[in-house]
Amino acid sequence: VHQSKMDFFCKLGYGKQDICKVLENLGQEALEDDVLKELIRMGSKPQALESQTQPSQLKLVARGSCSATPGLKWLGEDGSDSSDSLRPIVIDGSNVAMSHGNKEVFSCWGIQLAVDWFRERGHTYIKVFVPLWRKEPPRQDSPIADQHILGELEKQSVLVYTPSRKVKGKRVVCYDDRYIVKVAYEKDGVIVSNDHYRDLQNENPEWKWFIEQRLLMYSFVSNRFMPPDDPLGRHGPTLSNFLSKKPVPPERKWQPCPYGKKCTYGHKCKFYHPERQHQAQLSVADELRAKTKVPLALGKEEER
After folding, report:
1. Any idea where the domains of the chain sit in the sequence?
2. Under CATH, which number does the domain 89-243 receive?
3. What is the pLDDT of residues 139-160, one digit of tens each?
4. Do 118 and 126 form a contact (C-beta atoms < 8 A)?
C-alpha cells in the first residue's frame, strides 16, 4: 500500500521526501485525498511546476481581443540560421536576361540583379541556368550585354551552363527548361521565370502541380528586380511565406466593435473592444456572481 501511494504521487510530480513526511504524519492507511490536501497545505509543488520558468504571468484575455496569444516569431528571430528555412532558388537565366534587355538584348546584368536580390534575403542555394552557347562572342542576331558577368557567376558556382554543341555547322542545344524544372523539383525549391513551361506541364503531372505552385514571376522596374508580394494571387501566401519552408500564418486583424461601449454581447462579441483590455474574460452571469460574492458552484446548482 505504501509503495502504491508513493508511485501514485510520484507520477503527479511530488518529491519522495515530501510524500514520506506526509505519510509519517498521517499514517500509512491515510486516504489519497487527505495526503494530497496535506501536500498542498505544506506548500509542496509538483516538480514540473517548479521547473517551469515564467518570465511573464499569464494575463486574462480581453473580450474580443487576441492580445494574450504570443505573437509568432518571424524566421530567423530565434537566432537560428535563416538559410535553413528558405527554399532553394533556380533562376531561368535566359528568361531573366531577355526580360531585362527588353526582349532585344541578352542582358547579363539582369541575372546579377536577380541573384543579388535573393542573396540579400539570405538564400544560400541559388542556381542560374544558361545555354552553353551564350559563352560564344555575341553576334548581330543575338546581342549580349555585360557578358563578363556570366564568367563571374560561374566562378562563384552560381551559374550552370546547359550543354550545347555544333554538328556539321548546326548548333544542337539541349532543352534548358527541363534542367530548370528538374533541379527545382528535386530540391523542392522555387523557379524564377516568366515562362509557364506548358509543354513540361503536359509531360509530367507532378511537374504540372509543382510549376503551378512554385513558379515565381517578376518584373524589372528601372533596373530593380521586383517579384510580386502575392505570387499565387490575391488570396494566396505572401512572398515571405512563398519563399520559406516554414510559412508563418498571418496575424488576425481585429475589427473594432461598431456598438462600442453600448455592446451587450459580452464575451461572445467577435469584435475588438479597446475599453475591455483589462477586464477578465468571464461571462456576464459569472461577473454578477463574483460581485455578489456568491460561489460559482451554488450558482450552477441553482441554474440546474
Report:
1. 1-42, 89-243, 251-276
2. 3.40.50.11980
3. 888 888 888 999 999 999 999 9
4. yes
